[in-house]
Amino acid sequence: MSHRLQLTHAPSVLFLFGLSGAGKSFVGDVIGDHDDWFVYHADDDLTDEMLEVIRANQPFTEEMRDNFFERISKKVNQFRSQYSRVVVTQGAYKKKHRDYLRQTINDIELIYVTATDSLIHQRLEYRINGISNKSAEAIKHIFEVPDSSVKTIFNYEGKTSIIEQLNNFYSEELIESSETICE
């Protein structure tokens, strides 16, 4: 299997979502490092109010989340006028917000990034900034796991594994070989 990222058949926007500590930013950076993708870590645009809530180990209100996803949608659509390919990372814990993004951003695919609970816990322990284990645990129960039709990246084994999984989704070679098998 190639260690070079081959996203020939990917849509122009990939939105990586999942629990805090699952490795969305890592996967987004892998994509950004290996191809001509602009990487937007949406957590960089959390409002001051949202950051205060995180520091207090509290969940966001629905109004905060709704406003934040409107902001993300507008920002991604602005980036699309500047860049041909955009990868976005953000938790997107609620299905309604993921559906909203699908409705307001053309040529987008959402990819669920996941890892084991113990690995997530370990990653959060080593974070200097961002959500703590305590905060992550306090909001974990509100995460709505996507159905099996959503592409999933299992972020357990590092960069090479991420590249292989993405290539399985989008590389020209694999799509052509599957088309040949179907004929």
Describe the structure.
By secondary structure, the protein is α/β, with parallel strands linked by helices. It has a five-stranded parallel β-sheet with strand order 2-3-1-4-5, sandwiched between helices. α3 runs parallel beside α4. The C terminus is likely disordered.
Short note summarizing the structure:
This protein has 8 helices and 5 strands.
Features:
single chain; 183 residues; alpha/beta; five-stranded parallel β-sheet; 8 helices
- Strand composition percent: 5-15%
Strands across the major sheet, in which order? Answer: 2-3-1-4-5
So what's the overall shape?
globular
Q: What is the number of E strands? A: 5
Q: What percentage of residues falls in helices of 4 or more residues?
A: 40-55%
Mean pLDDT: 87
Q: Give the SSE string.
A: EHEHHEHEHHEHH
Low-confidence stretches: 174-183
User: How many individual helices?
Assistant: 8
Assembly context of the chains:
single chain
Distance between the termini: 24 Å
Radius of gyration in whole Å, from Cα? 17 Å
> Mind summarizing the main beta sheet?
5 strands, parallel
How does the helix and strand content classify structurally?
Answer: alpha/beta
Helix-strand blueprint:
Layout: E1 13-17, H1 24-34, E2 38-41, H2 48-55, H3 62-82, E3 86-89, H4 95-104, E4 108-114, H5 117-125, H6 133-139, E5 152-154, H7 159-170, H8 172-182
Parallel strand pairs: 1-3, 1-4, 2-3, 4-5
Helix pairs in contact: 3-4
